[in-house]
Specification:
By secondary structure, the chain is mainly α. The protein has one domain. About 60% of the residues lie in helices and about 0% in strands. The protein contains three helices and no strands. The longest helix is centred in the middle third of the chain and has 12 residues. The protein is flat. The N and C termini lie close together (about 10 Å).
Length: about 45
């Protein structure tokens, strides 16, 4: 994750990448990376 994204909400990142729904972004992220968004952010801290 880029440093500037640490301060952004997950929703703002999702909408930036043209996901209309946060739930869809969350499922797509987990499918692509094998981790939930929460787990990924916890690893990055």
């Amino acid at each position: 994750m880029q440093p500037a994204q640490h301060e952004q909400t997950v929703a703002s990142i999702a909408y930036y990448w043209s996901f209309g729904e946060l739930a869809h972004f969350s499922r797509s992220f987990k499918q692509s990376f094998g981790l939930s968004l929460r787990a990924y952010r916890a690893l990055e801290r």
